[in-house]
Amino acid sequence: MALTIATNLASLLLAIALVLGFSRGAQFWLSGILVGQIVVGMLGLWVFYKKLKNPLHTFISKAPQRSTISSRALLRLFQFAWPIALAVGLGWVQSQAYRYQLTASLGLSQLGLFVAGFGISSGLIAGFDSMVTTYFGPIFYRRLSDTEDQHHGSAWQDYANAVIPSLILTGFFIIAIAPELTKILLGPLFQESGIYVIWGAMAEVARTAVGVYALGAHARMNTRLLIVPNLLGAVLALILVQTLSPTYGLQGVGAALLIASLGSLLASIMSNKNHIVVTLSLKQIIKAILLGCFLLLIAGVVAYSKILQGGIFYSFGIAVIVGIIFLGAQWYLLYDYIANDDPRGQK
């Protein structure tokens, strides 16, 4: 998890440094992200080799002298993998195809405005998903390997009860500081895209929750459960963007992507319902919603009271204040799960 956080932080800092030091161009921003990933990636490779000490010798000494993979095992692998590949492709259609649709109907300038705001949310949600998966993912898969098949459902439930409330709180946090995010991260031409940050936060929370439910299919070794939710999300996104954007413009696009994500999430819930016991903690979800509303209140109070001076430092100050409270709220939500080795409290 430390390397994941270091990757995101190094990429962000290097991207900012290159943009401010050379030119505010996309190539410098992307170059900073790439360099940050390479630097921390090399560090991760060094840590990996250090832990294994002599990985090549270890691999050779433990590998059987003669190993074959049966056709039956290959068939099982194919049956597990092809629905995942199809679901990933459909997920791309749901989340990215609108860009091609809008280029023809609304033009590149409007598309850029929408993508700038929506992309902030999707990037932040993706970073959150990467960090929690890095921490809770190994716990989840370890429990799958250490327990009988009939207990795999409880492993998924504990994972979902840790991640989904935390995901909801992250969405509230992004919404609370949406205007500040556009002022900090975007240029003057794109700083009116705060509303699209909000649309993106809601849509990406729902879409990422679909990924959490996808692990339920992994737990049951039935990845075909992924096809219908992702197919529904892709079809809804294509149809609704084409239908709503001519009348409602970019607001219609945001609504279309949100409805597509919610439809995909509902289909995921229904698909898993008949194959895995679903008992999410209503208490944790209510906690997340109340804490999220508190973040909205704090952001509104700080902005209304004008206790901070205007300009970039004003926006940065609000983001820092709300961010510190957000981190404390996340710690409160996840304390029981982090304090114990796994979500069930088993050491």
Automatic annotation (TrEMBL):
<feature type="transmembrane region" description="Helical">
    <location>
        <begin position="248"/>
        <end position="267"/>
    </location>
</feature>
<feature type="transmembrane region" description="Helical">
    <location>
        <begin position="198"/>
        <end position="216"/>
    </location>
</feature>
<keyword id="KW-0472">Membrane</keyword>
<keyword id="KW-1133">Transmembrane helix</keyword>
<feature type="transmembrane region" description="Helical">
    <location>
        <begin position="35"/>
        <end position="52"/>
    </location>
</feature>
<feature type="transmembrane region" description="Helical">
    <location>
        <begin position="313"/>
        <end position="334"/>
    </location>
</feature>
<feature type="transmembrane region" description="Helical">
    <location>
        <begin position="113"/>
        <end position="138"/>
    </location>
</feature>
<keyword id="KW-0812">Transmembrane</keyword>
<feature type="transmembrane region" description="Helical">
    <location>
        <begin position="223"/>
        <end position="242"/>
    </location>
</feature>
<feature type="transmembrane region" description="Helical">
    <location>
        <begin position="159"/>
        <end position="178"/>
    </location>
</feature>
<feature type="transmembrane region" description="Helical">
    <location>
        <begin position="288"/>
        <end position="307"/>
    </location>
</feature>
<dbReference type="InterPro" id="IPR050833">
    <property type="entry name" value="Poly_Biosynth_Transport"/>
</dbReference>
<keyword id="KW-1003">Cell membrane</keyword>
<feature type="transmembrane region" description="Helical">
    <location>
        <begin position="73"/>
        <end position="93"/>
    </location>
</feature>
<protein>
    <recommendedName>
        <fullName>Polysaccharide biosynthesis protein</fullName>
    </recommendedName>
</protein>
